[in-house]
Amino acid sequence: MAKTLHSIEEPTASSTEELRTMLLGKRSAVQQQINALLAQYREHYSTARNDSVLDLEDMSLRDSTAEQQLSLLESRNRTRMMLDTALRRLDEGEYGLCEDCGAQIGAGRLRALPFAKRCLACQHQAEMLEKIARQEDRDDA
């Protein structure tokens, strides 16, 4: 499998199916985490509504817990969307190719981050540009 990601040849049908199976497995695991977080969130709020009067400390704790759950949910949802994009790129024959420069993404990078869309050099450049843009936004504020 790793050999296919480094070669210039088209991936074989079996390696493509192995990749698809791996990506779908990761997506399924992330979806289960999302479902569990949603259930916890709903349970937390139904319990909070059934409680009588909450003092400021209880309300603060409830809000903090809800924010943490929402943050985790957003993170898992972003991961799921990136896995969906990776599956689409696999179907289109673009998986393992940098979307910026078209170079092969290293097999090690894809093993660590199976939904990587950029090679290391392009990812570094994108992060630097993002950092500069954030700094300019802060300077303007």
Task: Report on this structure.
By secondary structure, the chain is mostly helical. The chain has one domain: DksA, coiled-coil domain (Four Helix Bundle (Hemerythrin (Met), subunit A)), CATH 1.20.120.910. It has 5 helices and no strands. It has helices spanning 2-6, 13-50, 56-91, 107-112, 120-140. The protein is flat, with a radius of gyration of 21 Å. Residues 1-9 have low confidence and may be disordered.
| Number of structural units classed as domains | 1
What's the count of strands? 0
Q: Termini separation (Å)?
A: 49 Å
Which class in CATH terms?
A: Mainly Alpha
List the helices and strands and how they pair.
Layout: H1 2-6, H2 13-50, H3 56-91, H4 107-112, H5 120-140
Short description:
The chain is built from five helices and no strands.
Key features?
single chain, about 140 residues, mainly alpha, 5 helices, about 75% helix
